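Build the 3D complex.
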Amino acid sequence: MPAVPELLAEPSLSSQITFYYMATASIVSALLAVTRRNPVHSMLCVLVLLLHMAGIFLLLGAEFLAAVQVIVYAGAILIFYLFVLMLLDLPGEETRPRFGRHWPFAAAAGLSFAALAWLARMDPLELAAGVVPAAINTATKAPPQGSLEDMGQALHGPFALPFEIASLVLLAAIVGSVVLARRRTGS
Amino acid sequence: MIVPMRTVLVLSAVLFGIGVFGFLARRNLILMLVSAEVMLNAVNLSLIGFSRHLEDPRGQVLALFVIAVAAAEAAVGLGLVIALNRNKPGAGVADLSELKW
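Done.
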């Protein structure tokens, strides 16, 4: 079975160009999403962002998560947001101020988080490349074969309990949202 | 790895910063929740990048859990928005001052 990493070991120019295009497009669409006045336009920008992120996941070798991103995020969660947005029929949303009066502080907070990018550029991640994998790779001795098979093995092996807890969290969310959004009649 | 790990981290941090700005600055509850989704996506990106960098599938498993929690968060958050909207139409956080004294 040809291993996937060897396929991607030699970085080709076209995949790099694709990556940088996707990165630029996701940053631009995220910026548009947080600044558009019309909420529906914001949602559509988030949709563009999610699809480009799915492309980046694909380039990074996470095929299953790219599919999950498109199906669950773009297909279910975002449509859910759009449904609620249209259900509420927000009156006069276009005329309200988009940002609160404190938006410079919010911009400062966002910029300081984005400044972590500068930190990540400075640090060549020697720690992550040298020290950590030695400890991690002893835990997963098998060489990586394909991301989906590895994920399945991990989900049903060491992550079986968190997997069940995730289903419990989803069940609690379903029950909770039904209880919260129910119309209270009588009593 | 088609691009250096640090490029993925830079992209992740920038997207997270945009999400933080949107969450703190927008005055519409639904758009604040969507900004939180942008932040969760940035976290997923860095988890998957590290998973690729360290050749460890556990990063992808964690990203899957993050997606599950994001779905739960969306369901509960939008349920709250609907319940609030029933009491007081409009989804602006400025209208919700009942607990302020």
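Residues 1-8, 130-142 of chain A have pLDDT under 50 and may be disordered.
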